[in-house]
Amino acid sequence: MKAPEFPATEHERQRSLDKLNITDTPPEERFDRLTRIAKNLFEVPISLVSIVDKDRQWFKSRQGLDACETPRDVSFCGHAILGEDVFCVPDALEDPRFYDNPLVTDAPHIRFYAGAPLSVANGQKVGTLCIIDTVPRTLSPKEFQALRDLADCVQQELTQALLIETTAELTARESHLRAVLDTVIDGIFSIDEKGVIKTVNPSTVKLFGYEEDEMVGHNVNMLMPEPYRSKHDAYIHEYLKTGRAKIIGNSRELVGQRKNGSTFPLELSIAEMEQSGQRTFVGVTRDISERKAAERLKVEFVSTVSHELRTPLTSIKGALGLIRSGVIGTLPDKLGAMLDIAYSNSDRLTRLINDILDIEKIAAGRMPFNNTAMRLPPFIHQAIAVNQDYAATLDVQFTFTDELPDISVHADPDRLMQVMSNLMSNAAKFSPKGAAVNIALRMVEGRIRVSVSDQGPGIDKKFQHKIFEKFTQADSSDKRQKGGTGLGLSIAKAIIEQLGGEIGYETEKGVGTTFYFDLPLAPNNISNNRSTALKNNTRHILICEDDPDIAALIQLMLHNDGFVADIARDAKQAKHLLSQTRYSAMTLDLDLPDQNGVSLIRELRDNEKTRELPIIVISATANEGKLELNGDTVGIIDWMQKPIDQTRFFQGLKRAMRDTANHVPQILHIEDDPDVAQVVAALVDDMAEITSVGNLSEARTLLGDKIFDLIILDLMLPDGDGQQLLPFLKKTRNSATPTIIFSVQDTTKETIDAIYASLVKSRTSNETLRAVIRTAIDANARTKANGEGMPNPG
């Protein structure tokens, strides 16, 4: 016996059979009528409508047979469904496939079989109409055709059943879909390629105030105010022509117009589909008036919180910082310790407020970014300087591995500094005492990678999957030994992604963790404006030192205090730099590899360009050099032995700065909070005279009467927005005076283009504010000397 093979499309055939829902159903007269006709027409004892299932053949209709099913592996019908034509076995005992088949050797003792396959709409054969006899016989061509015709009638009944069931199912689905469309709160409509409305649901009627028949058949631009109305048809035409989509496939916030002419904010999503060869666009829209109102209230609340918390915190932190720096003299140890605690916690509270407000801005998509081309190596040095004091309290130091000495990115320096400070402070916080945190800069797959690596305990596996989520901390124990809000990495991730980059980490338990971010290269190098500005900067220092560690230390000290510094490794390089750049002062090691430092001093004094250059000698042989010059020490500010006395070093630099300029810069500070004004005045006491006013009216009067070297402006003033002053400045003698925004508010891109710098109070340390003020004053002095316009920080 040969069991029937399975068709190559058995899986699809079985799916088609399942869709019929016919197996194991009761007998039906429409099928029984056809098997009776076949039995009588062909004068056979058995006639069947056989359905070939997975492992059986089941009889939907049977004449002359008691069994309702038999196994598929002994079935004749299993063979019949493998072909297209009627399958006929004249004598089963003479056929090698069937002579020992149990259906032949036992009841029902099949000798003759003829079966016509039954196909459904997709061509799959699900069974047969078959006739069986207990004696051998053959069929004439007319009988073959008659059996095929009867089988076609069975097929029609099967297809009709499927059609009836499918129609019922579609009707039910349509009713369900219509119920959904009629009750959903969103407005749903469809339009054709010309923008003509085809259908609308009740929510669309309610949303726009038109009746259904007032919209259907009309252009959808009737639901839009200008300028959307005029542009809509052109947009559809452009999309159909080019395939470039602006709205289709996306969700956007737009403005809708009701029948009564009123407008409202809405959110619109449009999808495209094809029906009968015609394109149809389906729009889903929702009134977002309440959401917008809530967002406005939220913005107003955040603005109030920002001002009412940040402003007093700025005063508190600034005043504490000044006292700790010794501005009122030496403090008792106990008082100093208490001040340290107060300062640390004011700083902690400031960071908490900043983080919470930043998270809110990120969620609302309102975090401002002012991207510009920026060189990364100097930026990394600045980040190290900003975070070094915190690391020192933990007995941790930063190192920098720079594989890209002249690489640039297009980013917001303030936001990027926020990311760096978070990564660096985290690394320092989780590092053991005496360890080093390495910052590295290199190229990875065509992008710039900045990485921060610590030697800490690594990140536990249970925290790794959620490390960038809000309020997540690896140290979440009750003791909270490491402190922090758990918001920093979430904010860092959002910032880096806004800058077009990616952030990630690598960690190994007990070895350490590296956090990194990748940024795209800037399209162009940094503008030459900054290089030119540096060459003429009146606070530009040349370091002539052959020891790379000492040179880096001096450069870091200078960067921390707002100076720009270049390094020369020998006398030849120093003379080359001096020929190219005008420096404010120079530090000099006497033990240079290519020339004695004393002879270099004499050479510089003989050169008219460098004759008056202030020099601070920093050398292990400073005393010997002083004796060798034999009193000829004109322009030598100080002779310092190594190691460097930092206090004495900066005292010398200040003397050099005073020697190069006698003008006392004049600053106008427009600030309504007297505490903040007092702190800023104390910060700049040694570099400028400051005049403070509390409103715009007083500021306008002073600006009309006097020329200032710098204006420091708060934006939230009692008689108006500080930005109102910027157009007024252009009409006064202070039109070229640089302006620094110092406020609790972030500054818009338009305002930044019109000012020198923008600083947020709660994010700006005393040192940063002082450095920016000093740089602005120096830049203004240089601009006046050269007869140029308002300086730009570059």
UniProtKB/TrEMBL annotation:
Q: Does the keyword Nucleotide-binding apply?
A: yes
Class of this enzyme: transferase
Query: Residue limits of the PAC domain?
Result: 250-300
Chain spans, region Disordered: 1-24
Q: Which keywords does the record carry?
A: ATP-binding, Kinase, Membrane, Nucleotide-binding, Phosphoprotein, Transferase, Two-component regulatory system
Domain called Histidine kinase: residue spans:
304-523
Limits of the PAS domain:
173-243
Q: Reaction(s) catalyzed by this protein?
A: ATP + protein L-histidine = ADP + protein N-phospho-L-histidine
PROSITE patterns given in the database record: HIS_KIN, PAC, PAS, RESPONSE_REGULATORY
In this chain, composition skew of type Basic and acidic residues spans 8-18
Q: Tell me where in this chain the Response regulatory domain is found.
A: 540-657, 666-776
GO terms for biological process? regulation of DNA-templated transcription
Q: What does this protein do?
A: Putative oxygen sensor; modulates the activity of FixJ, a transcriptional activator of nitrogen fixation fixK gene. FixL probably acts as a kinase that phosphorylates FixJ.
PANTHER family per the UniProt record, alphabetical: OSMOSENSING HISTIDINE PROTEIN KINASE SLN1, TWO-COMPONENT HISTIDINE PROTEIN KINASE
**Protein name, entry field:** Sensor protein FixL
